[in-house]
Amino acid sequence: MNEQDIQSTEAVDTAATANERFKRSFSSWFWGSITGATALHFAIFAWLPSMQAEDMTFSETEIEVLDAIPEVEIPPPPEAIRRPATPVITEATISEEITIEVTDFSNWDTGDLPPPPDQAKTVDISVAPQFVVHTQAPVLLNEREVISSTEREYPSLLKDAGIGGTTVIHLFINEQGIPERTLVSVPSPHKGLDEAALKVGLVARFSPAKNRDKTVALWIELPITFKAT
């Protein structure tokens, strides 16, 4: 045998010897592992807190049995309404000689009657707003002048501050359609706008109001709006 064969033989013997040693030691390693695992589990169960199942017992509430509602006796339906009696035409005869006496007012006693109203006395309707009978309402004739007056009378402080509003005014218009008096009917949020609206109302001109073919003086309402641009 050469030197290479000798070395191969020694290597095989060494491997066989190591394998035999491993096989011989397997039993001790196996039972040692089993013993260690068992001891570890016992230690874990010993140190872990004891677990106990929660008490799931419950008690039943006794159900109270209610008495049944007594049967309600339904009353009988009301009796039907009786039909009205059939009218009977009388057989009495009326004499054709009955006449009505002629009424004569000349014999009436007037007694102490109040005197007739003074026809010359007239009511001044310009004192306060009131309704006046008319068949044709007045129409605004100078709308552009009213708009220009609104812009001119708009208080500059309120306009610059962006404060606007609407004032409804009462206008007393004479027979020629010219306003003679102005009053605030519905005020705006600011007194300065109300005062400006009264001045604007005097600029307006209207067609005369008529009651049939006669011109009349009357009160109207006119809204004046101030709007900041």
Kindly state the mean pLDDT as a whole number? 80
Indicate the radius of gyration in whole angstroms. Answer: 60 Å
CATH C-level of one domain: Alpha Beta
Strand order across the largest sheet: 2-1-5
- β-sheet strand percentage: 5-15%
CATH superfamily of one domain: TonB
Report the sheet with the most strands, covering strand number, pairing sense and barrel closure: 3 strands, antiparallel
CATH architecture of one domain: 2-Layer Sandwich
Q: Helical percent range? A: 25-40%
Number of strands: 5
Outline type:
elongated
Q: What is the count of DSSP helices, taking H or I runs of 4+ residues?
A: 4
Order of helices and strands: HHHEEHEEE
Sequence stretches where pLDDT stays below 50 over 5 or more residues: none
Helix and strand content put the structural class at alpha+beta
CATH topology of one domain: TolA/TonB C-terminal domain
First and last CA, distance: 124 Å
Key descriptive features of the protein:
single chain, 229 residues, alpha+beta, TolA/TonB C-terminal domain, 3-stranded antiparallel sheet, two-stranded antiparallel sheet, 5 strands, 14% strand, elongated
